[in-house]
Amino acid sequence: MAMKGELVQWQEAVAAFSDKRWEQALDAFEGIADTSRIHFSIAMVYTNMNLIDDAIMALDRAVKSDPYFAAAYFQRGALRFSQDNLEEAVQNFDDALTFLRKNAFIDYTQLGLDFKLFAFQIHFNRGLCFAAASRVDSAMRDFEIALRSRPDELKNEYRAIDDAIKLGDKAGEFLNAYMVPRDRCFRPAASKVKNTQKMDFLGSSKIVAVVDSTDNYTGFSGKQLRSTLGRQARSRDPIESEPRTTLERSRSGSRTLERSRSRGELFRSESRGGSARDLQAESDFSSRGFDDDRGRKLSLFRKSSSRSLSRGRSPGRGGDGGGAGGGAQGSSSAGFFDTDPKIRRKQSEPSLSKSEYFGPLAGPLSAPIAGVSPLSLTPVASAGDKIKIKCHYNDTRLILVSPTVTYVELRARVCEKFNVEKLKLHYRDEESVLVLITDQEDMEIGFACAGGQAGHPPDRFELWCSD
Fold first, then answer.
1. DSSP-assigned letters across all residues of 229-291
2. Looking at residues 208-220, what average pLDDT do you find?
3. Residue 428 has pLDDT above 80, yes or no
4. Which residues of 87-126 are buried (b: 16+ CB within 10 A; e: fewer)?
5. CA pseudo-torsion sign 212, 217, 223, 225
6. What angle do helix axes 22-30 and 36-48 make, rounded to 10 degrees?
7. What span, in angstroms and rounded, lies between the C-alpha atoms of 163 and 166?
8. pTM score, two decimals?
9. pLDDT digit string (tens) for 367-382?
């Protein structure tokens, strides 16, 4: 099962455990039971169901998965003490003290278990086993160690240690061993569970349609309402109709301006001897011209028109190679423009060469521009768009990769950087645990732990490599 599926099922098992639905929790935990934490949680389910033998077997699997799991040895020893299996209980408490590594306590909260295992708890439990086995000296020695190592702030909570010293060899008959509370189990980290949920970064789109001057109507029904109100407006007397909104006036003015511009461009094109294709070129590329240092607008249409002028075309007659079609067009244009004296003056102007028409910018328009690709006219990607990855192996090295890098490409880059054939890649999660990266999903989860989001990897990432 993928890691995301395991996290979802783990969360479902914890929810059933909290609701005391033991059977559902057991089924969910057993579906992902491949780590010591899950086996320990199964043992806690069996403990709540009073199935002590099954709980002990689950703890056996937990310590087999993690031989240094002190809390599992501690819990197994407490359960065996409840079954009067004193010899094996003492052995379990000895192992718990060994893997406590002379520390005063181990806090399992960062691993998902809300429990602190103290050394004085282990000594107290082992003392109860010695007392029940009539080994009074060993029992009193453990009770005294537990009393000395118990923190003062926990004195009221753990008064049983004082009672054990008073009871002596009868402590094992009247006192119970400490163990992990029954309502505790390992829970997945909240940050990991959050990353399994779908995130909508764009939100829901909303179409807004203005249908009248009061802007009261919005939504997908705007087209229908617009047509209805339009018919009502046409039926009114023109004098009594409502004034147009600013948006409608601006649109009307824009259409009038566009028609006047198109008519003027037609006159200019015909006066320069331009064809309909030249007019379409100017219309298509007028918005993509280049400004020179004096603020003049140069377009691809002007460049093509200047070629026509430099070849000696004149308004009113066809070009050199125009043929019958060119002649007909020329005569028609001449007859039309003879009616306007301004146009006749324009026709009488001498033809301009390319250098005279363009001035100092008469060079090719495809000249490279700093920071811009000559083909796409889009900014060239820089090193700042890449992810800086710090790689630790025999030494520490840096590589830069694309934000769209795949797991296979990343591993190949790291191997190439260290000049080796194969490496295993690891990252540290929120709990500072090294996690092995095996596929693309593991790499994306590692990016998320480093502060990245869906579709936006982090700027920096750190890898630990091993053979």
1. HHHHHHHS-TTTSPPPPHHHHHHHHHHHHHHHHHHHHHHHHHHTT--HHHHHHHHHHGGG-EE
2. 53
3. yes
4. eebbbbbebbbebbeeeeebebeebbbebebbbbbbbbbb
5. negative
6. 160
7. 5
8. 0.45
9. 444 444 444 444 444 4
Lowest-pLDDT choice from 4-18, 246-260, 330-344: 330-344
CA-based radius of gyration for the chain = 42
- 254 is written with which tokens? 């824009």
Let me know: does 408 contact 425? Beta carbons within 8 Å. Answer: no
132 DSSP 8-state letter: H
User: DSSP for 380-438?
Assistant: PP-GGGSEEEEEESSSEEEEEE-TT--HHHHHHHHHHHHT-S--EEEEE-TTS-EEEE-
Whole-angstrom distance, CA of residue 161 vs CA of residue 134: 18
| 208 or 273, which is more confident | 208
Q: Which candidate, 388, 396, 365, 384, places its Cα nearest to that of 465?
A: 396
At 269-291, the pLDDT tens digits run 444 544 445 545 444 444 444 44
Q: Which helix (H) or strand (E) is 119 found in, with range?
A: helix 119-132
Q: Which token pair is 159?
A: 């008064």
* Tokens linked to 143: 């009770």
Place 84 in a pLDDT band, splitting at 50, 70 and 90: very high
